[in-house]
Design a protein that fits this description.
Layout: E1 10-16, E2 23-29, E3 32-36, E4 38-40, H1 53-60, E5 65-68, H2 69-74, H3 78-84, H4 87-91, E6 97-100, H5 103-108, E7 113-115, E8 120-123, E9 130-133, H6 135-145, E10 149-151, H7 163-185, E11 196-198, E12 200-201, H8 207-218, E13 224-227, H9 236-246, E14 255-258, H10 264-272, E15 277-279, H11 282-288, E16 291-294, E17 297-300, H12 320-324, H13 327-335, H14 339-366, H15 369-380
Parallel strand pairs: 4-15, 5-6, 6-10, 10-11, 12-13, 13-14, 14-15
Antiparallel strand pairs: 1-2, 2-3, 7-8, 8-9, 16-17
The structure holds one RNA strand.
Length: about 375
RNA sequence: GUGCGAUUAGUUCAGUUGGUAGAGCACCAGAUUGUGGUUCUGGUUGUCGUGGGUUCGAGCCCCACAUCGCACC
């Protein structure tokens, strides 16, 4: 293949807030533009659990969703994904997709992993079979999956790691990033649209390591850059401090993705510190288990006190489920173990998250984000 | 009708040689942050079928009754 792809994918800053580091931007991909700040629903194995694409598109307004390399590699496997023509076509999703490399799974499945300089060997959680991820084959794998944005293979350091371990871990992540980047630039996308990759800033909770990691990652960042290894056990305040350490060093024209975060309050606090992109399993996983986030606060739908509350799920909710189903009905569905319960809660929560970042964007554009955030945070943290 | 077995938490069941009771599930709460449709952490709940007897002491031993199940007439 002689030709190089013309690089069209880019991030453009459109607004900055006066009272905080919040910003608005547009991330352009071949599958469409993404308005930032944005929340990206997680669809690990090619499905945002319990939610129809129709609802993701029209009701929730998802602009981009996630897939996971580790999980997709194991099931359905690369043969099927390649034959399908990539993940977009396989799951019939017309908008952008971002895939995580599986680095986090290396960390979270630690009892059965083995890290070496070359890569990471692990056993499948499905059938125990042995596999190896290297920076090189991870690029190849993510080329086959075909997400618009792919993530570098890293080691996600535990939040309570000591500095010696964090140092060692970061050094490995840096060497892996060099190799990942080299492989990425010597290969082409397979399906006729552009891919970009985001390097990941590690460094645990040590400001010095974080700064060093940022400088190093920036050398490999074209469109965006990610902050990883946060919300993995460290106090929330420490996470915010790390964002304050890292964000000022990143040029304004780079999209900043905070991986795996978080609660609605986390989103607003991170946006205030300059983050543009988020993903988190919380709205869907916690939703399936009875937690819903509303404009009035957090609700555990399983609690007996909702048995006869016939009011709407969220009086200010934007999803059709908010005005269609009552808290009493959803409570009943959870108690009865109906799968419909998880579907309704997931749809509501995702719509809530997408509406939250939509509101954030409009307040940043209006220039009153900081004040709006303060009063919003108080409400979002209350438990009903 | 006769024989055997059963009866303990909302439920299914444990319960040592007699020393005033436990578990799973359910229920009630809490946790959950780059997803294994979860997982984890706490908590509440008992006239031990009824009535008598033996004993310092009975869920346990004895008697009667009630209810349920099984087998046989």
């Amino acid at each position: 293949m002689g030709f190089r792809y013309l690089r069209m994918m880019n991030f453009k800053l459109t607004h900055t807030d006066s009272g905080s580091s919040a910003r608005c931007g547009i991330l352009s991909t071949d599958h469409g533009d993404i308005m930032t700040p944005i929340f990206m629903p997680v669809g690990t194995v090619g499905s945002v659990k319990g939610v129809y694409h129709r609802d993701l598109l029209d009701d929730i307004g998802a602009e981009i969703i996630l897939g996971n390399t580790y999980h997709l590699y194991l099931r359905p496997g690369l043969e099927t994904l390649k034959a399908a023509g990539g993940l977009h076509r396989f799951e019939s999703w017309p908008r952008p997709i971002l895939t995580d490399s599986g680095g986090f799974q290396i960390f979270s499945l630690s009892p059965i992993r083995k890290l070496t300089e070359e890569g990471c060997t692990f056993q499948s959680h499905i059938d125990g079979s042995r596999h190896k991820f290297t920076p090189e084959n991870n690029v190849d794998t993510q080329r086959i999956i075909g997400a618009d944005i792919i993530m570098a293979l890293d080691e996600c350091c535990p939040g309570d790691a000591d500095e010696a371990y964090a140092r060692k871990s970061l050094d490995l992540t840096k060497r892996w990033l060099e190799r990942f980047s080299a492989r990425f630039h010597e290969t082409e996308p397979l399906y006729g649209y552009e891919q970009t990759f985001f390097p990941i800033i590690q460094g645990c909770t040590y400001p010095g390591l974080r700064r060093e990691a940022t400088e190093h990652a920036l050398a490999h960042s074209e469109v965006g850059i990610a902050v990883g290894g946060l919300a993995v056990g460290e106090p929330t305040e420490v996470m915010y401090e790390m964002l304050e350490t890292v964000c000022p060093i990143i040029p304004q024209d780079r999209a900043r993705y905070l991986m795996g975060v978080g609660t609605p309050v986390n989103l607003l606090e991170a946006i205030a510190r300059g983050i543009d992109m988020f993903d988190c399993v919380m709205p869907t996983r916690n939703g399936r288990n009875g937690m819903i986030f509303t404009s009035e606060g957090i609700i555990n739908m399983r609690n007996a006190k909702w048995t006869q509350d016939f009011g709407p799920l969220d009086p200010d909710g934007t999803s059709w489920v908010d005005s269609t189903y009552s808290r009493a009905y959803l409570h009943h569905l959870f108690v009865a173990g109906e799968m419909f319960a998880g579907m309704i809660a997931s749809e509501h929560n995702l719509a809530f998250y997408l509406d939250l970042v939509r509101q954030a964007r409009s307040h940043i554009a209006a220039g009153d984000f900081a004040a709006w955030k303060e009063q919003k945070v108080r409400k979002l943290a209350t438990r009903l």
